[in-house]
Recover the amino acids of this structure.
């Protein structure tokens, strides 16, 4: 009986919320809080497997960016990465773009607000480009990746591709790296099958 109760408790630890892209979904953890602060599980392999995320994570990444920084849209054509993204401090608009040519949602995007306050996470499986824009004064972004960074296979989809029509919700001039400014349009990039 205790094993059944433990399994139910683990499954109740995270709720999933679908996005407009099949396979990309929001994970909302159960947060326990009191006057001292809060606690939640941001990753539990058994719970993730129950939610359909069975990929092995091999690398954790952490970035800090200031307001209006736009990072991305990145993906690796070989050694593709699934990413589990969260924001412990600050707020971002997280973007996933479907790059699977065989998908009914090819070239479409999903935008999700992730923040230290809402504690939501976003699962972006293999086959998608990823990027974000910082909404707060600064934000720390943490993500787990299913394959190692391979710079020779990294590609950048233009964050401002006019065909994508991504609403970055800018409230000023975007701050974009030189590498990301050289991103290519959806019409010109390598994609997945």
């Amino acid at each position: 009986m205790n094993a059944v109760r433990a399994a139910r408790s683990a499954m109740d630890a995270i709720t999933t919320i679908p996005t407009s892209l099949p396979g990309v979904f929001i994970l909302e953890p159960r947060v326990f809080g009191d006057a001292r602060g809060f606690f939640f599980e941001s990753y539990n392999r058994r719970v993730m497997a129950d939610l359909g995320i069975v990929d092995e994570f091999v690398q954790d990444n952490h970035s800090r960016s200031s307001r209006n920084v736009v990072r991305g849209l990145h993906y690796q054509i070989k050694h593709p990465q699934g990413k589990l993204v969260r924001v412990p401090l600050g707020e971002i608009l997280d973007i996933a773009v479907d790059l699977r040519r065989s998908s009914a949602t090819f070239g479409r995007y999903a935008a999700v607000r992730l923040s230290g306050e809402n504690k939501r996470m976003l699962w972006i499986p293999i086959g998608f480009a990823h990027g974000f824009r910082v909404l707060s004064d600064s934000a720390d972004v943490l993500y787990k990746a299913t394959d190692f960074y391979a710079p020779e296979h990294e590609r950048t989809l233009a964050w401002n591709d006019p065909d994508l029509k991504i609403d970055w919700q800018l409230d000023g001039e975007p701050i974009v790296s030189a590498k990301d400014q050289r991103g290519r349009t959806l019409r010109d990039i390598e994609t997945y099958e």
About this structure: The chain has a mean pLDDT of 93. The longest strand covers residues 59-66. Residues 25 and 180 are 25 Å apart (CA to CA). The domain at 2-31+41-181 is CATH 2.60.120.10 (Jelly Rolls).
